[in-house]
Amino acid sequence: MIVDMNFGWKCNGKEVTLPHDAMLEERREADCRNGVNSGYFPGGKYTYEKSFEVSSEAIGKKLTLHFEAVYQNSKIYLNGKQVGAHKYGYTAFDVDISDAVQTGENHLRVEVDNTLEPNCRWYSGSGIFRPVTLLIDELDAPKIVTKSYDPAVIEVTADAEIVEIYDGEKLVASGVPGELTVPDAKLWTGSTPNLYTCIIRKGGKEHRTNFGIRLLTWDAKNGLCVNGERILLRGGCIHHDHGVLGACDFYDAEYRRISILKENGFNAIRMAHNPASQLTLDICDKLGMYVMNEAFDGWYIPKTYHDYARWFDDEWRNDITAMVNASYNHPCVIMYSHGNEVSETATQKGAETARMLTDFIHGLDDTRPVTAGVNVLLNVYANMGFGVYREKGEYKPEPLPRKKGYREKKTGSAFFNAVANKLGGLMFFMASGKKGDKASKGAADGLDVLGLNYAASRYDEDVKNYPDRLMVGSETMVADLPYNWERVKKYPQVLGDFVWSAWDYLGEACIGDWTYHSYKGLPLLAGQGMIDMTGKPLASMYFMQIVWGLRREPFIGVRPLNHAHEKPSTGAWQFTNAIDSWTWHGYEGTKAVVEVYADAASVRLELNGKEVSTKPIKKYKTMFKLPYAPGELTAVALDANGKELSRHSLQTGGKEIKLTVTPDKQVLTADGQSLCYIPIEFTDESGELIPYIEQSVSVRVEGAAKLQGLGSALCKTDERYVDNTFHSYRGRLLAVLRAETEPGMVKITINTKNMKPVEIEWEVR
């Protein structure tokens, strides 16, 4: 029996429903020790309390509390007795409460301590931000492995009497634990995500597990293959947060994100730099999204003062085991990673650690390859003594005192980020050569697949010098994709490319954003996504589609004319801030910078039917400058002979402006978990976005739902996602409603100055 434990909680005396992110409710502070890491959100101490009933029939049975994730340093008490504890904030853990539970009312208390900061290089969230369940005398989940796909043979390992395999409602195979043949099997791949259900039975109890029939192989001759077919990973890195929702993990939020990523051409994600939630893996199974599941951002050398390195030696076995166990039956997981930009790999001890971790994972699951993201340039610097965390005196596990103007020393990946922003594209070349080879060889010898962060310049020489070495672009920049993707297609040893990042995220604030100084406030978002925080694909996303060969027509992007007089500070991770709009009323005559992306020899740009210029395409991109004038802007892609291949146009919208509101559903479920995403846009009468309107919008929600979050993709702001007002950015912002637990009607009213309010009603049932 599985009991939902997400309702009836109080956090520091306030009533909450899980998942709950306490950090998002904190006041951001300029002198916060977390600084840009968390977007200036502090952590704190949080006490979660809940009462629940246990019947006399349950006493004497095995009762287990399953926590999907609690950030961090959690202690669990039942009826005043400590029954468990867990340090890492991203892995699941179980607490056996069989001996502490009592008949009738029980009092559960979870103490969370996130005061030791900084402890993370991005926004972590705080508290119980993923679901909690109570397992009453549950069977352990089986382990299911595909042994072959033609014929389809699976092996089920389970403490059970009977195993049944269902295709929907149809029983297709049954027997005892061991090997089972599934006739006429529907195989799981990224393009055909067919799932089966395995039911195990013992002593009147049963356990259900979804799985897919797919066989993974990898070698230097054939690359990475799913069911015998080579796949090229069109990947993107994502963090765990959901923007305006903070770290809270909702099915609707993750389904929307993975769906949008899939629709825009990604077939793989890298969970950076901590394990994916069960919801994420379930949805990736369902939608056909390959997953690189990653355990840690670091090992035994800290990147921030209080981070996981302080626990690594004691905790890594438990946390890797939790990641592998959670991944085992998910066909979407095609690779494990046990580290990200770990400068230790430049040393002999670090290389030995890489091998130790890889062997440990193989002992748990030998059906998937193991990698780690190695930043070759960072390793080169580490060999020279730069970027490695060194402290004066002994580490003290206590909060650091606040200090105006305090700057955390840049180490590890933070050091690299600072270097990368200075060097830009130069670092691509600095990873090649003998120094880069020396800095990466030790790690490569301890991995099935060498993950290369910003080091694709190594592909050609490593294929030549180490022909049996498998590599993956575990973290790359979008500007390098033309070079990278040619190597992915050319070399089976190069498995794919994972851009940083697929979706914008909280923390590492403004590191990739093209930031204008006219925007005031504390840095909040990274500004690095191919898709922004609201779910809108950016120009760089369309560039990637063209390089991948998924988009045949060209794409036009226009740098914001409302900031044409300002020079932005740019980050190395984004190569543009262009917008797919030619609607700039009031900016007539302003010099417009127009970017065109195309898989063509050249592009002819036309304005209102007249040629502006024709320019050659280099690395899928060219640029034009012209005075803005309203009308139709058209890019015509041409082959080497000047013959038209395809075209793309932008049309100036009308001057009448209205609020356009497009909720993603009409009915909400009264379960306390159902979400409704509501993009709010300033448009003309035809729905054309007006990108230069940036003004305050208020949202009032009444009835059977609440406003869970409100915000825009603006990277710098002092506004809060938990409030009911926020400024639009590029003509757009996003509201998210969360259903209550009782059916009824919900009414939302959206107001902004000089415009008629918009009112919409939904049913919650």
Architecture overview:
The radius of gyration is 26 Å and the shape is globular. With 765 residues, it is α+β, with helices and mostly antiparallel strands. It folds into 5 domains: 2-136, Jelly Rolls; 143-214, Immunoglobulin-like (Sandwich), CATH 2.60.40.10; 217-395 and 407-499, Glycosidases (TIM Barrel); 552-580 and 586-651, Immunoglobulins (Immunoglobulin-like, Sandwich), CATH 2.60.40.10; 658-764, Immunoglobulins (Immunoglobulin-like). The two termini are 25 Å apart. The chain has an 8-stranded parallel beta barrel, surrounded by 6 helices. Strands 3-2-4-9-6-7 form a 6-stranded antiparallel β-sheet, with no helix packed on it. It has 11 helices and 44 strands. The longest helix has 17 residues, at 348-364.
Mean pLDDT: 94
Tell me, briefly, the overall form.
Answer: globular
Q: State the helical fraction.
A: 10-25%
Give the tally of β-strands.
44
Features:
8-stranded parallel barrel; TIM Barrel; alpha+beta; Immunoglobulin-like; globular; Jelly Rolls; 765 residues; 5 domains
How would the blueprint of this fold be written?
Layout: E1 2-4, E2 9-11, E3 14-16, E4 45-54, E5 63-67, E6 74-78, E7 81-86, E8 93-96, E9 104-113, E10 132-136, E11 143-149, E12 152-157, E13 162-167, E14 170-175, E15 178-182, E16 196-202, E17 205-211, E18 216-219, E19 223-226, E20 229-230, E21 233-238, H1 251-263, E22 268-271, H2 278-287, E23 290-294, H3 312-327, E24 333-340, H4 348-364, E25 370-374, H5 376-383, H6 412-423, H7 426-430, H8 433-445, E26 449-453, H9 459-465, E27 470-476, H10 481-490, E28 494-499, H11 539-548, E29 555-558, E30 591-597, E31 602-607, E32 610-616, E33 621-627, E34 632-638, E35 644-651, E36 658-661, E37 667-668, E38 675-683, E39 696-703, E40 705-711, E41 725-727, E42 732-739, E43 744-752, E44 758-764
Parallel strand pairs: 21-22, 21-28, 22-23, 23-24, 24-25, 25-26, 26-27, 27-28, 37-44
Antiparallel strand pairs: 1-10, 2-3, 2-4, 4-9, 5-8, 5-10, 6-7, 6-9, 11-12, 12-15, 13-14, 13-16, 16-17, 18-19, 19-20, 29-30, 30-33, 31-32, 31-34, 34-35, 36-38, 38-42, 39-41, 39-43, 40-42, 43-44
